[in-house]
Design a protein that fits this description.
14 strands; 1 helix; mainly beta; 3-stranded antiparallel beta sheet; binds calcium ion; 7-stranded antiparallel beta sheet; 234 residues
Length: 234
């Protein structure tokens, strides 16, 4: 168990020359990563920032734009999940985003539902309108876990916009995926779907290509190598 992987040539005097160091293991999966996200009651001009909510990069933030009534973000997990916890990642510099309501997260509800544009069942409520400085907030669902496909974050009764850099969701899928790709971002013949066919990569996500090693991604090693497959072109 650990976070950092170190490769060392012990006692060596020669340099290290290596083309790839891959690591395999298990950790808690953010099941919201790269999933489709929509804004409810948002202005069209701010919709382009919505993917920043689920791109896995803490420095990119989604902005719901000018004050709107009851602003919401909704993530489509693609299939039912038993959602156990969520993590909110806030902007690095709240003073730059106060005018956007960047770090105030009181009276905020995170819910799980089976239907789009529906609040569904409560996962967790942030009661007090507290100032959340830079950093993150990890919250367990109050009832332990809630089953559903759509995750909705709503500022109830708010007139301030939402400005949030990442909404991570932790839970377990049911194993049933309506698409041709897997939640663990593996792909190719070595990583089949439940029906036995090779897993693809979601062409509408930020990881649309399958590498020779069987990982969905977006670099040249995923998209343009001889044995790579770019599912946006298929
Ligand atoms: Ca982000």
């Amino acid at each position: 168990m650990g976070r950092y992987i170190t490769l060392t040539k012990v006692g060596g005097t020669r340099a290290i020359y290596l083309c790839e160091l891959e690591v395999y293991g298990q950790g808690p999966n953010n099941v919201a990563l790269t999933k489709p996200v929509t804004g409810i009651s948002l202005e069209q001009g701010t919709l382009h920032t919505l993917p920043y909510l689920i791109d896995g990069i803490p420095d990119t933030c989604a902005d719901s734009g000018p004050a709107v009534n009851r602003p919401s973000f909704q993530i489509d997990l693609g299939q039912d999940h038993l959602v156990q916890a969520v993590k909110l990642v806030f902007p690095n510099d709240c003073t730059q985003t106060l005018s956007k309501g960047g770090c105030f997260y009181g009276n905020t509800v995170i819910s799980v539902s089976d239907e789009q544009n529906s609040d569904g069942e409560l996962c967790v409520r942030i009661q007090d309108n507290v100032f959340q400085p830079k950093g993150e907030l990890i919250l367990d669902c109050e009832a332990g876990a809630v089953m559903g496909r759509y995750i909705t974050l709503t500022k109830v009764g708010a007139t301030r916009a939402i400005y949030l850099c990442e909404l991570e969701v932790y839970g377990q899928g049911t194993g049933i995926n309506s698409g041709c790709w897997r939640d663990d971002l593996r792909c190719g013949p070595g990583f089949p779907l439940p029906n036995g066919s090779p897993a693809e990569c979601d062409p509408d996500s930020i990881y649309p290509c399958c590498s020779a090693a069987g990982w969905c991604g977006n670099t040249a090693a995923h998209c343009t190598c001889d044995s790579c497959r770019d599912f946006r072109k298929l």
